[in-house]
Structure formats: structure tokens, C-alpha cells
Specification:
By secondary structure, this protein is mostly helical. The protein has one domain. The chain is built from 6 helices and no strands. The radius of gyration is 26 Å and the shape is elongated.
Length: 202
């Protein structure tokens, strides 16, 4: 066997090893991304369900708003509800877009940053309930009472004021419970990616 044949064998072996390393890296990233997506599966479907509900409810609200545009006591609460639905739709769509950016093409560090941003938005969304629950509850009752029972809820003035005040207490309780029992799967996903990143760094 001459020198050229030995060189050719060495090059082929080196190329095969390089190909195997690439395949293993791609397989590792694919397994990692799939695991993260499974961990965040509940988060994904929660956002999808909320988007569907908010979209349907928004369409209904637009119709209600148009029908009662000249009656301020119904136009204002339905307008408030529409703004909340627009916000919720935009927020959920943005969260879902971030979720689908977790893929094999991105590095482990990039995927880690995306999941951390999702956790941040999740915390922000929870804090926003302090405002959204009180802002949503009373207009929702006013619109639903009119839409389904043709009842003017403003007649129950004192009760309506008490209900509005009570919604602040409900918001405090809901936010407390959500902060007391956060999404553990999202935290596990961040920890998992962090451990992989540290391992690769070593």
C-alpha cells in the first residue's frame, strides 16, 4: 500500500467521523427541542384555546357594539371588552409565535433565551390580571345581561358597585394563587436547557 492510498484512507475516515459528529449534534438538538416542546405542550394548547375563544368573543362583541353604538351605557362596556380581547389576542399570538421559534435551527442558548422570555411574559400576564379582572368583570356582566336576557343591569346600581369592588378582591386571590403555584414545566424546561448549555460549555 503506497503513501497516496494511506492518505486517501485517512481522509475518508476523517470525513466519516466528521459526518457522524454532525449527525449526532443534529440528533441531540432535535431530541432536546422535542423534549422542550413536550414540556411546554400545555402552554401551547392553552394559548391556542384562548386565541380561538377570544377571536369568537371579539366577533360577537363587534356586532353587539355596532347594534348599541348610540347607547353609551352599552357601547362603553362593550368597547372596553373589545380592547381587552384585542390585547389578549395580540399577546397570545405573540406567545405562540415565540413558542414555534424553538426549533432545531436555533442554538441551545437561543432556545434557552426564548423559553426565558416566555416565562417573563407568563409572569407579566399574571400580573396584568390585577387590572384585567376588575376591568373585565363588570362590563362582561352588563353586556351579557343585555345580550341574553335583555336586562338593564344598571338597575341594580348598589349591587353592581359591590360586585365591581369584589372583583378587585377576586383579582388579588387569583394572582396570589397563580404566583404561589407557577408553571413548573416551564421552569423545568429552562433548567433543562441551562444544564445542557453548562454541559456543552464544559
Amino acid at each position: 500500500m503506497d503513501l497516496q492510498e494511506l492518505v486517501n484512507i485517512w481522509k475518508n475516515t476523517d470525513q466519516e467521523l466528521e459526518n457522524k459528529i454532525k449527525i449526532n449534534k443534529n440528533l441531540f438538538k432535535e431530541v432536546t427541542v422535542n423534549k422542550i416542546r413536550v414540556m411546554l405542550g400545555e402552554f401551547k394548547w392553552t394559548n391556542i384555546v384562548e386565541i380561538c375563544f377570544n377571536f369568537v368573543f371579539l366577533i360577537y362583541l363587534i356586532g353587539f357594539f355596532i347594534d348599541h353604538f348610540s347607547v353609551l351605557r352599552y357601547a362603553i362596556p362593550s368597547g372596553i371588552l373589545m380592547l381587552i380581547m384585542f390585547y389578549s389576542l395580540s399577546f397570545n399570538i405573540h406567545m405562540l409565535k415565540l413558542f414555534f421559534r424553538i426549533d432545531v435551527k436555533s442554538s441551545i442558548v437561543q432556545n434557552q433565551k426564548i423559553v426565558e422570555r416566555l416565562r417573563y411574559y407568563n409572569v407579566l400576564d399574571t400580573r396584568m390580571l390585577y387590572v384585567i379582572i376588575p376591568l373585565f368583570s363588570t362590563p362582561f356582566l352588563i353586556v351579557m345581561a343585555k345580550a341574553f336576557f335583555d336586562f338593564n343591569l344598571y338597575r341594580l346600581g348598589q349591587w353592581l358597585v359591590m360586585f365591581s369592588a369584589g372583583s378587585f378582591v377576586v383579582a388579588l386571590i387569583v394572582v396570589y394563587l397563580l404566583r404561589r403555584f407557577p408553571d413548573k414545566k416551564m421552569q423545568k424546561a429552562i433548567t433543562f436547557l441551562s444544564e445542557i448549555s453548562d454541559f456543552k460549555g464544559n
